[in-house]
Amino acid sequence: MAKQKPRTLSGFMELLPARQAQFERMAELLRRSYSLYGFTPLDTPIIEASEVLLAKAGGETEKQIYRFTKGDSDLSLRFDLTVPLAKYVALHYAELSFPFRRFQIGKVYRGERAQRGRFREFYQADIDVIGDGKLDIVNEAEIPAIICQTFTSLGLERFQIRVNNRKVLNGFYAMLGLSDRAGDVMRTVDKLPKIGPEKVRELLTGEDIALTGDQAGEILKFISITGSNHEVLNSLEAYRGRHELFDQGLDELSTVVKYLGAFGVPEEKFAVDLTIARGLDYYTGTVYETFMTSHPEIGSICSGGRYDNLAEYYTDKQLPGVGISIGLTRLFYVLEEQGLLSDQLLTAPADVLILPMTDDLSPAIAFATKLRAAGVRAQLYTEPKKFKQKMAYADRLRVPFAAFLGEDEISQGKVSLKDMATGEQRLMSTGEAAQAVLSALEAGRNAAPIREKEE
Amino acid sequence: MAKQKPRTLSGFMELLPARQAQFERMAELLRRSYSLYGFTPLDTPIIEASEVLLAKAGGETEKQIYRFTKGDSDLSLRFDLTVPLAKYVALHYAELSFPFRRFQIGKVYRGERAQRGRFREFYQADIDVIGDGKLDIVNEAEIPAIICQTFTSLGLERFQIRVNNRKVLNGFYAMLGLSDRAGDVMRTVDKLPKIGPEKVRELLTGEDIALTGDQAGEILKFISITGSNHEVLNSLEAYRGRHELFDQGLDELSTVVKYLGAFGVPEEKFAVDLTIARGLDYYTGTVYETFMTSHPEIGSICSGGRYDNLAEYYTDKQLPGVGISIGLTRLFYVLEEQGLLSDQLLTAPADVLILPMTDDLSPAIAFATKLRAAGVRAQLYTEPKKFKQKMAYADRLRVPFAAFLGEDEISQGKVSLKDMATGEQRLMSTGEAAQAVLSALEAGRNAAPIREKEE
To answer: Fewest CB atoms within 10 A around its CB: which of A177, A186, B118, B182?
Structure first.
């Protein structure tokens, strides 16, 4: 028979078993972390009617959409989890209670140009809190705590959450009479880490944006405000009273900083950073980015912010919210590239590989059943192979334990349990074996998936 | 602004939060159950190259495919998890160890005619064991144990796994010289529960299939063999020696039955059923169907079997295997329709809703942080609403506990914890509150998602 060459599309991540186990562990920890903060899991279709999904989209995004017809239907694959959330909340408004807190971990699709580290199918892990009409600032203050707890649970230690407030930015630009050019200015300021302050000044005073030297100077002075959170807030106080929106933003930023301690966020994990802007229209209050301090080149690994109108394309209801998103597939790819996936995590498919040595397999099977009832992941290996091949299989799977049941063991009601790492082999009762495996593997099962190297 | 009416496509399941939590619990228990048997989680793309995905497909299946082009690529959405597995195993053959045991829970797509209870996007939950060249019969004997453990962990009590062996069937038809008509005969016999034996006899001896009266009589006698597993096996022994394939199938079936006890499968959960056939070409050994004994009208909720050649469209390697699949979305739909989703399972988004009663929220936030560190799912409610509205929100979310922190509580370093079910309210330390919540909710958190009614 002619064979079809098997292949996986480029831009689509497909992992080998041990890596997949590591990825699953990350997803499990995200679910657990989000749940602790009262977010409920949600799942929405990957396919939506194009008219619904693309109610807002346009330009760059629309070009990337996987869009097609089936029968009479014009369909599209979701390109993020925010638009489906907006649809969900507008559609099920009457059946939901607000604030509505949901998390969703799911695949999204973007037909981007294929290149290394860019994915066309990738997981996003999102949380959002949606209010009905209003949403209290404490929800914005809580987000850094969630980011901090989430990455800490994954095993990441060296990261920093950088926070700004769009009202502070917009209020400041309004003070300078630059509201109409705020977008251009912010895009330019965004380049600061890459091109430095002098080049930024040149661009700001160039013919496109055409600021005066004074205005450019004010901006450069403003964005160079750094220091501890309280130092930055104190410096901002000097601008108070000149514009209402600015004052409101400063109050919000102060509230976010005030509650950090109570939320359990260590000081060094959080910084007010006036250069963080995050796009132009959507965000209206606090904005967040998260950087790995040892790998700033990766860019933000968790971003988001406060918005005023989640579902304006679907409903007249004012639905403000605050949310963050982790690009899980890209993060996993980067962690692997950087060698930051922990080898402490147990990723073998089973805890014990059971090797029966007799024709009647009943005792070995009964042992497997007993192990499983005790919560031990057990695999029976009954293929008719030589002993050496069986052990090679155990090695390749990297199972931590092998168990042998021969005539001797069976007649004594016992089992020989071999620790594959140390090579040590001990005869013990089946109950003892279950306990021995569980206690030996507790650390490996609960290990964090990420492990940063010593610097 | 003109609004786009929000809607979800028909044939796509989108659940409200409490139901979604119940679905997630089912998926979590499936993952746990499959892991106990040494299956490793796998994830493959939802989109594949059409030439790869449709290497085998044809006829009815192909018509249902979501197929489209993007740029130069001819793409299709997967319609099951078996073809992607075949691709995966053929593609990564050199990097896998065999037997390769994987589970996959993922969405698949079929553009079926929309009707109640039929889904175009649905989850399948599959396990497969793939051998390299050969695969021992014990893998087939283990499957009923996995089915039994899985459904039991979900809370289902009244179900039965019905098992047959294709070699027994094919051998039997060969004895009667009917190998060329075995397909037609099996399709007709499949109708037995619906149309009864006399109508089956009519069809078998009718002009399409044209069996002799003797042949039809032999078949009806054969498929009417019932009784305990050992009675059925004994009756089958009477046919031994007449055809090699039959004898081999009978040996396999006997082995499967022999090990049931050691695998922990209760006698009443398992029946050898000679009317189970499961399609024509693909399956070659043991075949499985699973029925809810109180709802036989639902049909099989978990089916599968042994096959000889998983990936013949991609590789010359002979890759035999055995697998089963649960149509999770349809099962969930049916369980809900039948009122079999348990209300004992805690599906609220949080365990405790914290209601601060002071302007400074720090003590309430610190309490939330403490609860979360103890593993309690806590939500802060800080919207400026009247007390009655806050309690109504707690009621609607069905959170089991509300916690109040007023000046009195704060000055004493305590919290008032209210059990929302009983209305009882007690003043206690924050540490006591965490413990009280955890112990009160242990049952609800660990409850099974399915609960059958008393008959």
So the answer is: A177
One domain for residues A23 and A147? yes
Residues A42 and A132 in one domain: yes
Chain A: closest CA distance from residue B55 (Å): 6
On whether any CB of chain A is under 8 Å from the CB of B293, the answer is: no
Least CB-CB distance to B97: which of A362, A378, A397?
A: A397
Using CB atoms, which residue from B7, B314, B384 is nearest to A49?
Answer: B7
Same domain, A119 and A239: no
Q: What is the CATH number of the domain that holds A389?
A: 3.40.50.800
pLDDT reported for residue B190: 82
Cβ distance A6 to B52 less than 8 Å, yes or no, reads yes
- By CB atoms closer than 10 A (0-12, 13-18, 19+), residue B427 is middle
For residue A95, give the CATH number of its domain: 3.30.930.10
Going by pLDDT thresholds of 50, 70 and 90, the confidence category of residue A280 is low
Q: Is residue A321 part of a domain?
A: yes
As a whole number of angstroms, the distance between CA A65 and CA A110 comes to 6
B391 contact A CB<8A: no
Helix (H, G, I), strand (E, B) or coil at A341: strand
A 412-431 residues inside an 8 A Cβ radius of B: none
Q: Which of A16, A259, A316 sits opposite B95 (nearest CB)?
A: A16
Q: How far is A392 from chain B (nearest CA, A)?
A: 10
User: Cis omega (within 30 of 0) on the bond before A99?
Assistant: yes
The answer, yes or no, to whether residue A61 has pLDDT greater than 80, is: no
Span A331-356, average pLDDT: 96
Q: What is the pLDDT of residues A173-216, one digit of tens each?
A: 999 999 888 888 888 888 888 899 999 999 999 998 999 999 99
Q: Among A77, A76, A83, A62, which Cα is nearest to A121's?
A: A77
Same domain, yes or no: A214 and A275: yes
Domain count, chain B: 3
CA A188 to chain centre: 28
Q: What's the pLDDT at A187?
A: 85
Chain A residues whose CB is inside 8 A of the B263 CB are 365, 368-369
| Residue A192 to chain B, least CA–CA distance (Å) | 36
- Rounded mean pLDDT for each run of 10 residues along chain B, 455 residues in total: 92 97 98 98 98 81 90 95 98 98 98 84 98 97 98 97 96 93 86 88 92 94 94 97 97 97 96 85 92 92 96 96 97 96 96 96 97 98 95 97 97 97 96 97 95 78
The letter for the amino acid at B117 is G
Suggest the residue from B1, B43, B152 to mutate for an interface test with chain A (most A CBs closer than 10 A).
B43
pLDDT at A138: 97
Which chain B residue lies closest to A68 (C-alpha atoms)?
B68
Q: Positive or negative CA dihedral for A210, A214, A217, A221? A: negative
The per-residue pLDDT for A62 is: 79
Identify whether A3 is part of a domain.
no
Q: Which residues of A touch B52 (CB under 8 A)?
A: 4-7
A277 pLDDT more than 90: no
**Pair A143, A188 in one domain:** no
Q: Which residues of B touch A384 (CB under 8 A)?
A: 134, 136
Residues A170, A282 within the same domain: yes
Mean pLDDT of A295-308: 94
Do the domain assignments include residue B347? no
Same domain for B66 and B88, yes or no, is: yes
Chain B residues with CB-CB distance to A109 below 8 A: 47
Cβ atoms of residues B36 and B145 within 8 Å: no
What is the number of H-type helices and E-type strands within chain B?
A: 16, 16
Domain extent, residue B442, equals 352-446
Alpha-carbon distance values, B92 to A352, B66, B88 (Å)? 24, 26, 6
Q: What pLDDT is attached to residue A411? A: 96
Query: Do B110 and B244 fall into the same domain?
Result: no
